[in-house]
Design goal:
The complex is a heterodimer of chains A (about 180) and B (about 170). Chain A has helices at about 10-15, 15-35, 135; strands at about 40-45, 60-65, 75-80, 90-95, 100, 115, 120-125, 140, 145-155, 155-160. With about 180 residues, chain A is an alpha+beta fold. In chain A, the strands form two sheets. In chain A, strands 1, 2, 3, 4, 7, 8, 9 and 10 form an eight-stranded antiparallel sheet that branches. The model of chain B has no long low-confidence stretch (mean pLDDT about 90). The chains are: A alpha+beta (about 180), B alpha+beta (about 170).
């Protein structure tokens, strides 16, 4: 390896365009895999998760270790591939396989319930009136879940997401 | 000895840096995989009941969720088990009226938006007739080539399947 007066990596790459391209490719692939399997950040927008998330200007930290619904619990916020179009949404998990959930919006006439089928989950937005979720497209396959939302970032403000549906210890409703 | 160890580590590290590009290639461009199970009999694994040998296939992953057509062989994450990748044939696209097979409660079903109806070629297949239409977002790739065994190796001519040729969404059932 020739390096001139530079040692190490810089010396290896300087004056070797082919080597530099290969290195850049490897580096890109590595960082991509980190965002794919580790931690990802994405801007949140839309009214469906008010008041948990704001309408605009907030970024979400998504743990991709929870992809495909691994280790998610009822009450977790998840980012998921919307089954009926090509976008990514953020909703709250209200039911996991085997759970009974309400088909319609609470307060409506219909009180019908269904059992969430194997390998699926029931996700609903916090802002019931302005959310297109499982009430519209039914149970979502866990395979469409991209990850769990663990924190939010606003400019100069980082905050962990608290799961406020249940107390962690006894899983009974809060208050 | 220490010189050997040093060189060995050096090589190891250098090869390890190729791992991320390789994984990305497998995830987004193409992958070679063995097919298990009888669900695509007789097209894939025609000898599943007499041999342990599995077909080796090429899965092309670029633009997997675009330009889907009836008759294509697709791989997708199983809606019942997110850790399992399944191979089936597309029978109906969104809006198509498909005729279902027994376990499904209705005889005719219209495929909803963003979904496709998939079914195996063989009788022993757990497909849309069990779990209903699948979301296009679950699709990870399509099978374009059979690589092994040699006598059936070659391009997968999905467009010659009756489901595609007749434009008849009931033909596959």
């Amino acid at each position: 390896m020739s390096g001139g007066q530079f040692g190490g990596l810089i010396g290896d790459l300087l004056g070797h365009p082919f080597r530099t391209v290969i290195f850049a490719g490897k580096f890109l692939a590595f960082t991509h895999l980190f965002f794919e399997y580790g931690i990802q950040t994405a801007p949140a927008q839309g009214p469906s998760m008010l008041p948990t998330f704001e309408l605009l200007g907030q970024w979400l930290v998504v743990s991709r270790r929870h992809r495909f619904g691994r280790n998610v619990e009822v009450g977790d916020l998840v980012a998921y591939n919307i089954p009926v179009d090509e976008n990514v949404g953020v909703k709250r998990i209200l039911g996991l396989p085997g759970d009974y959930v309400m088909l319609d919006t609470p307060g409506r006439e219909s009180q019908a319930m269904i059992q969430v089928p194997q390998g699926h989950c029931w996700i609903v937005g916090d802002n019931l009136a302005a959310s297109r979720d499982s009430r519209y497209f039914g149970p979502v396959p866990l395979a469409l879940i991209r990850g769990k939302v663990v924190a939010t970032i606003k400019p100069f403000h980082f905050q962990w997401v608290e799961k406020n549906l249940f107390h962690r210890e006894n899983r009974s409703p809060a208050n | 000895m220490s010189k050997f160890l040093g060189q060995f580590t050096n090589h190891l590290v250098r090869y390890a840096t190729w791992l991320p590009p390789l994984i990305c290639f497998n995830n987004y461009v193409a992958q070679v995989t063995f097919i298990s199970g009888p669900s695509m009999y007789p097209f894939l694994n025609p000898q599943y009941h007499e041999s342990l040998r599995q077909d080796l296939c090429l899965v092309y992953k670029m633009y997997a969720q675009q330009n889907l057509d009836r008759g294509m062989l697709v791989t997708f994450r199983n809606p019942d088990d997110p850790d399992k990748i399944t191979v089936k044939r597309i029978i109906g696209l969104e809006g198509d009226m498909v005729r279902t097979k027994p376990p499904y409660p209705h005889e005719y079903f219209q495929v909803p938006e963003g979904h496709v109806w998939v079914a195996g070629d063989g009788d022993k297949s757990k497909d849309s007739n069990y779990y209903g239409p699948i979301s296009i977002r679950l699709i990870t790739g399509r099978i374009t080539h059979i690589l092994s065994p040699w006598n059936r190796a070659g391009r997968v001519k999905w467009w010659e399947h009756p489901v595609h040729r007749n434009g008849d969404v009931n033909a596959g059932n």
